[in-house]
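Quick note —
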Amino acid sequence: MAVDLVIFDCDGTLVDSEPISVRVGTAALRRLGWSIDEAEYAERFVGCTNEYWNEQVGETPPGWREQLHADYAAAVKAELCVIEGIEEALDQLTVPTCVASNGRHATIRRSLELTGLAERFHGRVFSAEDVARGKPAPDLFLHAAATMGVAPERCVVVEDSPFGVTAAMNAGMRCLAFAGGLTPAARLTGLGATLFHHPTAIPDLIGSFARE
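Predicted structure written out below.
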């Protein structure tokens, strides 16, 4: 089956934002009195929608969310970088690409602009804000594929979280799962995706899908 579209998640797949998110989020929840460490935070929240996160956190004191957003924005501005090897992989791809992320459009845009990736995906960025349900539901990936005019079975999704891999499987798409990032390989195994450990493997893996 030919591959006519590669759909990239953003956080943890294109940009190395997940360690920042986990560190800042864990500290913020501890200020609320939660007993949680970064490993538990990563397992519970990496790749989730903003709505899911808000539901889990519940009511917060005045100013708490504003402080969280300010802390995250400052850390992103100072530290955010691309995932090592992703630009090389993008340079080698010969099929159309797009981004589909559970993040908000403003957050995705900021991340892509700060890391110099924005022009690579200009006009081809999709957010959970665009659909009724974010990942792990298939809605976002199906919306991206439909907008790009490609059938789901001719898409390959590149993800780094169980939420995202599950969404790709639910959408009837093939999936590459990045096991070299924050999410342990064990949590990505058995979900139906092909695991890889370095982004430079992506072009060859997509080529192998096309030859199947």
